[in-house]
Structures are given as C-alpha cells and as structure tokens.
Amino acid sequence: MAEAIARSPRLEALFIAPGNPGTAALGTNVAIAADDVPALVALARAERIDLVVPGPEAPLVAGLADACAQAGIPCAGPSRAAAELEGSKSFTKEICDAASIPTARWERFDAAAPALDFVRRRGAPIVIKADGLAAGKGVVVAQTVAEAEEAIRAMMDDAALGEAGRSVVIEECLTGDEISLFAFCADDTAVLIGAAQDHKRIGEGDTGPNTGGMGAVSPPAGFDRARQEAALDLLVRPMLAEMVRRGTPFRGVIFAGLMLTEDGPKLIEYNVRFGDPEAQALLIRLQSDLLPALASVADGTLDAADIRFSDDHSVSIVLAARGYPGRPAAGGVIAGLEQAGALPGVHVFHAGTRRDDQGRIVAAGGRVLTVCATGPTLAQARARAYDGVAAIRWDDAVWRRDIGERALRASS
C-alpha cells in the first residue's frame, strides 16, 4: 500500500508506522506500533495528516477509525463496530444469516466440552475457528475428529491463541476453489477492486499448518470480472445493507474470502482490510491513483472513484523464516534484494525485516519478504517471480515452489 500511495501525484508526505527498511525508501518511518491508537492519532494531529490509511486489522478492531473521527481526521477504514466483521467470526455469521448470505452451517461455543461433543456427533472433515483475531492462524480444517478435538483443546483449554480462542465457531467444511474478493466500500456502495487466490498452507500441495499466506495469484483462473461482480452482489452488497440497517455502516476495504462450491459461491469470512500477500498481487496491477480512491472511501463519495487495473497477471511469493508459522529463525542476513528488484516485472516488498548494526538487512519476523512479478500471461508472471526469489540470498528462507501451479493448470 505504501508503494502504491507513494506513486500518487497528489501525495505531499507519507508517514508509515512502524515501517521497515523497504518502506523507508517511500516515506518517513515512525516508530509507533500499528495498534497504538493514541500514538497514531497524536502523530496525525502533529503532522496535520489529511488521510489515515489503516493496514492491518488490529488497530481497526481497537477503534482507530473512531479515534480519528473524534479528532476530525479522515480515515479510510471501518469503525470499531463495523470492524467486528473481522474481529468476531460469530458476528459475521450472524450478519450472513440476517442478510441471507450463503455460508457454511455453523455453531458457536464458549466451552470446550459441548464443542467436543458437537464434533464427535458431526464427524469430520470439519472447521474449527477461533472467534477472535488470531493473525491468520486461528482456523483449523480438521480432517479427523481427533484433529478437531486437538484444535478445540488447544484454543479453549490451553489458550494457545489467547483471548481469540476463548470461544470458537465450528462449521461445515466447504469444498471447492477458495477465492479472495476485494472491494472498496462506503455505506451501501461497493466498487470492485479485483480478486486473487491465496495459498494458505506452509507446504507444497497445500500441506502443513495454515499461515497468514504463502503466495497469491491475480486474477484467479476462471473467475473473471463478471463472476467477481456477481459475487459482490451475492456476498458483499447485502452485508453492507445489513450494516447500514443496524446503524454501523462499513467504510473501507472489504476482503471476502469465498469458496466456489458446487452450489455456487459461499462466504468463508470477511476481512476488513487488504490481505497479505493478496494486496501485493493486486496493487502492482493498479493503473489508477490509489490515494483519491482511499479518500473517497473515507468521505463516502466512492461512486465517483476512478479505479483501473491492468490486464496483466501477477504472482506473489512469500519468503518466510525457517520455523514459521511456529518459532521463526531471526537475525539471518539477507542479500540480493537489489538484484531481484532489478529483474523485469519484479517487485520485492519487505515485511519482517530490519537493519542490523552494520546496516545489513536481516530477518525479523515470520513472513519476511514478498517477491512479486507481473506479466502478460500467468506463466510469465510466475517465472519472473521465481527468478526474483532465486536472486535473493538468505540461508533461513523457506518458500513454496508451487505458487500458481494449480491456476496454471486450470487456465491451460
């Protein structure tokens, strides 16, 4: 997002909190945590900021947009009440039921014993979700009852996810292709951004534990603009109308995770911001100016926004630290970033990085880099992205070697 905003001819100054070595080249990094709402509002006041653009979900659920509104500062993100669409899985399910949005059958539990009894009666496969925010790691698609029992005990008895897992949502396991659909929203208006397909699991062939995302392709194979608009009509616009009816209108970016089932698209979950790594795959295809589009979200004039994307395909590949999504290795020196970024069509975005005492880029997180590329075909974009990965030297790096492989087969 910082890179896309930095391209705007309307931009006068850009501050990124907390930022990283990559964003330092785009604006001014400020050492404020992304969820430190009072400090963020104080910064916006001090610098006379015209627009606050939230990145992750935590500050939104913590009330960043509300605090900005109280201070008279425009914010391109939803209120705390509207951010419950991501902050609570059961809230989303209640909205779906009220707005007749197709989704998986579900039940909510506040104690482990009835949850365990439920999965034993229902059988597997079955999906266990922490009701609260869990940084993309609160969903277990259990293939066996034993696996479901283990997930319930870990979340509810062992507090593996803290407060997020105090209650759980258990739902039927949908089958089909999973798609990420994005739209700018303001009250009852939704304008399509586009779609991407994420690769959630750590290992090739969709094996291993879920992560925050190991790579994405955009657009997804077989899901063109007409189908994306139809999905907006089915899964997003009724939600917006229900939120307006409740007096908690939504303004911001909605990311609808959906499953293309045999019975049509069904909602998996809402996120109230750009996803990662989907944002990278989407925004490198953006041709129009992102900044006025975000401003129109904040002031409710979205229907007049100019939003255009290229017809190119894009692929994003996450380089994570060895040990992720458990305990990632930190401190490894990363080289070759400039060489990778100089390749045709390749963009390298920093996430969990920092500079050490010698000025070197080192790993400082789980998902550390995202290497992206565009191309006139999916095959070319994918090849360019993997060329970018090959140019980077980092001993602790792990990545999937099959990002976009299934989409490539589907489109051939």
From TrEMBL:
Pfam families, per database record: GARS_A, GARS_C, GARS_N
InterPro entries registered for this protein in UniProt: ATP-grasp, ATP_grasp_subdomain_1, PreATP-grasp_dom_sf, PRibGlycinamid_synth_ATP-grasp, PRibGlycinamide_synth, PRibGlycinamide_synth_C-dom, PRibGlycinamide_synth_C_sf, PRibGlycinamide_synth_CS
Catalytic activity of the protein: 5-phospho-beta-D-ribosylamine + glycine + ATP = N(1)-(5-phospho-beta-D-ribosyl)glycinamide + ADP + phosphate + H(+)
Transmembrane regions listed in the UniProt entry: none
GO molecular function: ATP binding; metal ion binding; phosphoribosylamine-glycine ligase activity
An example Gene Ontology biological process: 'de novo' IMP biosynthetic process
SUPFAM superfamilies xref list: Glutathione synthetase ATP-binding domain-like, PreATP-grasp domain, Rudiment single hybrid motif
EC numbers: 6.3.4.13
Keyword Chaperone: no
Keywords per UniProt: ATP-binding, Ligase, Nucleotide-binding, Purine biosynthesis
Family (UniProt): Belongs to the GARS family.
Protein name: Phosphoribosylamine--glycine ligase
